[in-house]
Amino acid sequence: MSTVARKKSLIWDYLTTVDHKKIAILYLIAGGLFFIMGGIEALFIRIQLAVPNNDFVSAGLYNEILTMHGTTMIFLAAMPLVFAMMNAVVPIQIGARDVAFPFLNSLGFWLFFFGGLFLNLSWFLGGAPDAGWTSYASLSLESPGHGIDFYVLGLQISGLGTLIGGINFLVTIVNMRAPGMTYMRMPLFTWTTFVASALILFAFPPLTVGLIFLMMDRLFGGNFFDPALGGNTIIWEHLFWIFGHPEVYILVLPAFGIFSEIISTFSKKRLFGYSSMVFATVLIGFLGFMVWAHHMFTVGMGPIANAIFAVATMAIAVPTGIKIFNWLFTMWGGSIRFTTPMLYAVGFIPSFVMGGVTGVMNATAAADYQYHDSYFVVAHFHYVIVGGVVFALLAGAHYWWPKMFGKMLSEKLGKVTFWLFFIGFHLTFFIQHFLGLMGMPRRVFTYLPGQGWETGNLISTIGAFFMAAGTIVLLVNIVITTVKGKKAEADAWGDGRTLEWAVSSPAPEYNFAQTPLVRGLDALWVEKMEGKKGLTPAEPLGDIHMPNPSFLPFVISLGLFISALGFMYHNDHSWGLMVGIVGLLITFGAMFLRSVIDDHGYHIHKEEIIEAEKKGAKA
Amino acid sequence: MHVEEKLTAETFPASPEKATLEGKNKFLGFWFFLGGETVLFASLFATFLALRDRTAGGPSSDELFKMSIVFIATMLLLTSSLTSVYAMYHMKNFDFKKMQLWLGITVLLGAAFLGLEIYEFYEYVHEGLTFSTSAFASAFYTLVGTHGAHVAFGLLWILTLMIRNAKRGLDLYNAPKFYVASLYWHFIDVVWVFIFTVVYLMGMVG
Amino acid sequence: MKKWLLNWRLFSLFSVMALVLAGCGEPFISALQPAGEVADMQYSLMLLSTAIMVLVILVVTIIFVYVVIRFRQRKGEENKIPKQVEGSHKLEIIWTVIPIILLIILAVPTVKATFELADVKPMNKENRDKEKTLVVNVRANLYWWEFEYPDYGVITSQDLVVPTDERVYFNLKASDVKHSFWIPAVGGKMDTNVEESKNQFWLEFDQEDAEKAGGIFYGKCAELCGPSHALMDFKVKAVPRDEFNQWIEKMKNAKPVVTDPVAKEGEAIFNKSCIGCHAVTPVDNRPEQARTAPNLGNFGDRERIAGILEHNEENLKKWLKDPESIKPGNTMTNTYGKLTDEQIDALTKYLMSLKVE
């Protein structure tokens, strides 16, 4: 019950924090680092393919790089960066002081982090996984060494973290909304977080099961995927894509949410067709589970299944189209300010439409026999993932940077980043549609001259370097801002509409001195239009209850990390089994401690809050 | 209502598991978690159904399964679900001792079930069905074994709660914990009903 | 001055044409230059879907450009607050219904084509006319392809030979890991799975287009299968039915005829170790599990060494000396001891003599 301000080292503070805003920063840093690693891998891929018969990397190494590029970008960069945005913004957007389970929030991060660390350890311990991010069962069973084991166990650990994060946001959004924040008043980013979290909840367990099977087959003598003993590799493909397709929506729905906020803010208009936007989000989430087999049109499921999944897939274009037009009409009649985040939003619309329409082309099953596993598909999903998700993450990072760190990123450098990245992106991927149609399969480590693919590949490689340059400018921007950036105000962009712009930048650890009363959609805008400075409070000023920091999430995750290392080597070394068991004991021991030690949190007293609010107002 | 307040039978709320915000969060979060678990078991079931006839020359389910043991095990687990309902009934009436008693019975029944399952696996291995015999074997042991691991975890969890709170008695801090543990126990029971039907009954009919 | 202008014009004309032509790829491998019934069908679906999608993109782009230019904040408008519009049911209905109609226009031919392409009834008929309905069993292996003509008891590897202007039916399977069988110019791909149940589909090869492509189509493995996935190429010789029949006849009776003394030496070396995996007659009655390496019955007629190198003695020697340097991860590496240069020369002579044409 102590309220004494504990002086702690910065590192210990972050190792033990359960504050959603600090966890957001952890996700941002870790996700950002993995994004850079995945980007370097991408550059290696493009350098290797710049000219035919290149020997920049060897065939085997190339497969490791392409596998790690995909796996890293999806699981270790895009997912955590999305979680960074969610953590930084959603609790404040709904007027809450924290998430529903601060301890689990921290646990989710550390599980992701140790999973990612484990996966990347493979580079130093005998080679990375090399069967593609999809890791299809026959090839992943054939693959020698421990690369695939790193994939299986690393993803298992980090996937657990994601699942926990998903449940946490579901409960947070259901239970922790401020008075007056009805479902149909929630900002769209909160809505998309909510639907994406539901998708996580139902999509990750099939991946977990698939990974268990693969682990059993590779390490413990299972026969799930061994046809000689009755196994069937197609099971892996189904399980993987039952997870894999919703995963696309898990990433892209929050991206839609981010753009909805940005477009609305910088057009100075409320979102056009808010309720149909919500409806479209839910519908996309629902349909996202019905279409996984469109990744498997060439597997031989037969024409009936192919036709059903083709039509179901096309149906998703309808709610997505609704969203595109709603964004356009949000801008219509507005007063558009082209800030850096808005540039990304504006660049996103045509880019994502491109990715969307090639998605419909892929859905035409009979024609997909040509597109499938060719560079056409590579181009398509990069238009969706980069043109949709990465643009959104960059936009969101610029948009909420002042809210997370209290300083404005340089607009000038931000725009340089945008143009480099935008041009590089189209240069890299547009031409790949044609490479695919001209017969170039994906995942090839090289190609022979004389097949008509030279020019396209060279252009694509040049584009990749533009994107790299854009990323470097962003890093420079971050460093300069951190050293001497302009201090941000509460309503950093001046046109904020939602609750996060009502609290100081960065937000105090308790978010709101008094829980606000929400009186409409775009709660802050409503107050502004009535000429009020702040929010209407829903409670008198009083002591605020806060959760205690804890080191246990770190320990629980570390235990699983050690355990995975042990079990991976249990067939090669006698110590493997021991280490595996010790790791599990550490994990369960820490969970036991969490269970038996009471944690009632502490209170921040009213006087301290008044003091802090004064300081915040002055700064 | 405050979490650590000492309560009496009169002041104890009707739904102690949902009386605090923490309790409400735990209640809802656990339901979501069970939703995820449902998908997990659904994936395991689907795989088992796809592989149940892939015995690769090894023993098949109708050669192995014995109704008697499985039936006793089923009865034990079903009964334990009932006893945990009693425990929750007494929790709501603020009768800590009776709650502990019924939880104790639940744990005993669960342990007996687990013992039978281990014995059953031991038998099958002796009859030539190891984990590596066939795809059917892998799918069978993984599905039923995952359920068994859930039972084991549930036992440890309830035991820990019982011991930790033995002296303290019931309050609004631990009531939600007891409640979600019993929820978990019911879930395990429901999964077993499906295993009994899909794996054993369908396996013995052929 | 004028000449310069003319040159410049010609140059730009040529570069545009080159770009358009390059945009369609090479006739022997590009899906944009369809060379058979299946590819044609898929190409017209591509065109239909592209047309619809370009329409969508146009509409979005026009609105987009208008909005971005018309509604940008101008100087002095910093404090202007636009009208807060909630939405418009009329508009929302329009952009829900029109896409649905467009999708129906696309969905109907898609479903039709999907069923059409899956029609393999003729190959599974009990009393199929073997002269008219050709069936080929395709077996994909770590970086090589086996093509078996079950009706004729003939096996070949790496180079698929098919008759033109008729539907050819395929049974597809893999012997080790999953691969995918793809001849881009002739039709979309189908996976070769490792399970017992084989995939089946059909392709048709146009005589005219085959001639345009130089008589040879390129085939690819389209599913990541290991280090040399990129090098798992095969070639398709599409010839008129008569020519095909003649070829099959020759294949049925082909046996190594070795006269050259160096080649004889090579035969001896071959028969000591290589023969354990490689057969040298197109008729090979061993079960497929025993056929662990490409059939070399008509090796001398092949289009490429190892599927990728130009077909000449020099490249064959390179391959025999160190296959790993050419196809990393292939299953031939380390299955035989080090060969002397003489031995390699002899083997090369022998292998090149294995011809049916």
SSE class of chain C: alpha+beta
- The total number of structural domains of chain C is 2
The sequence of SSEs of chain C as H and E is HHHHEEEEEEEEHEEHHEEHHH
CATH H level, superfamily name of the largest domain in chain C? Cupredoxins -  blue copper proteins
What is the terminal-to-terminal distance of chain C? 59 Å
Under the CATH scheme, which architecture of chain B would be assigned?
Up-down Bundle
What is the global morphology of chain C?
Answer: elongated
Q: Structural class of chain B, please?
A: mainly alpha
* End-to-end C-alpha gap of chain B: 57 Å
Radius of gyration of chain B, in Å, reads: 20 Å
Number of domains of chain B: 1
Give the helix tally of chain C. 10
Tell me the name of the CATH homologous superfamily of chain B. Cytochrome c oxidase, subunit III, four-helix bundle
Secondary structure tally: strands of chain C: 12
Please tally the helical runs of chain B, counting DSSP H or I stretches of 4 or more residues.
6
Q: What characterizes the major β-sheet of chain B?
A: none
Q: Which value, in Å, is the CA radius of gyration of chain C?
A: 28 Å
Provide the spatial order of strands within the biggest beta sheet of chain C: 3-2-1-5-8
The unreliable regions of chain C are none
Relevant terms:
heterotrimer, A: mainly alpha, Cytochrome C Oxidase, Chain A, two-stranded antiparallel sheet, 20 helices, 4 strands, 2% strand, B: 206 residues, mainly alpha, Four Helix Bundle (Hemerythrin (Met), subunit A), 0% strand, elongated
